[in-house]
Amino acid sequence: MEFKARPTNRLQQLLNRIPVLGDVLRQPLGALGFFIVLAFMLVVLLAPLVAPYDYAEQDIPSMLQGPSASHPLGTDHLGRDLLSRLMYGARIALGVALPSVSVALVAGLTLGLIAGYAGGIVDDVALVLFDSIQAFPSVILALAILALLGPSLVNVVLVIGLTWTPGYARIARAQVLRTKQEPYIEVERSLGAGQARILVFHILPNIVAPLLILVAMDLPVVITFEAGLSFLGLGVRPPTPSWGVILAEGFNFIRQTPWPITWAGLTLIVTTLGFTLFGETLRDVLDPRLSGTRGI
Fold first, then answer.
1. Of 32, 60, 134, 264, which is most buried with the most CB atoms under 10 A?
2. Cα–Cα distance measured from residue 263 to residue 160, given in angstroms and rounded to the nearest whole number
């Protein structure tokens, strides 16, 4: 009688069911990035339950204190607990980054599909539009638009989505140009399939996966971008506990205490590093050919 080897633990069972995750976790940097991202997501989900204080709760007698038993990471200039503010700040970071990248993905995918498939004058006009937006540095363009619209959470999401759209559109266009030359597309045309059917059922499914990988790679960049805008006073406004706001407030009191800047900076560094390592490892596992596609 033959006996099949059984997975020795639940982790191995999970890896067997999700081969891509197993490939990522087998690479040390990918595993490190995955666990950082997992910890970040747990903080986002559980912040109201695990944060020791409300992020806006003030304790003036305890202001500008260092780490202690009651405040593990210290307090800011209003006596607010830094650990609680950083935990809630993770929700702000994801709450800005995820919708922003989603806006850029949807808009870029739509424009790239139209430009790549239509070709001709439509493609030329789209390329001019993409070049016009990308001609301005992202920070300068964002600062100019937010100066007109005013700082708010919605405006930050829209501005970041706009500045990231041309990158997704160019990659989608390049994928469409390659895919529409495939033999099976010609077969569909010869069988009488309409343009909409070819786009939706045959081209779109073959170009979405690379863009989703790029979403994972862009999330840390957008998190840093949002923190920079908030640091300059054009992103999320106080008392909302954005990491950029915590950095800006800590900078004003750096002579009295270094802890707000230290902890907010480390949190931002570790989070962006985790997303970057996980995203790049995921890209290498799923499609190594995507290396360098930003220049298309």
1. 264
2. 25
CA 178 to the chain's CA centroid: 27
Secondary structure (3-state) at 81: strand
Sequence-separated (6 or more) residues with CB below 8 Å from residue 255: none
Taking alpha carbons only, the member of 57, 61, 82 closest to residue 71 is: 82
Q: Report d(CA 278, CA 281) in Å as an integer.
A: 5
The predicted pLDDT at position 260 comes to 93
Sign of the four-CA dihedral 12, 16, 17, 21: positive
Is the preceding peptide bond at 239 cis, omega within 30 degrees of 0? yes
The strand pairing partners of 58, in sequence order, are none
- Segment 218-231 mean pLDDT: 89
Q: How far apart are CA 115 and CA 177, in angstroms?
A: 9
Lowest-pLDDT range, 22-31, 88-97, 269-278, 279-288? 279-288
Provide the 3-class DSSP secondary structure of residue 163: helix
3 state DSSP class of 75: strand
Alpha helix stretches (DSSP H) within 18-81: 19-25, 28-50
How far, in Å, CA of 212 to CA of 197, rounded?
22
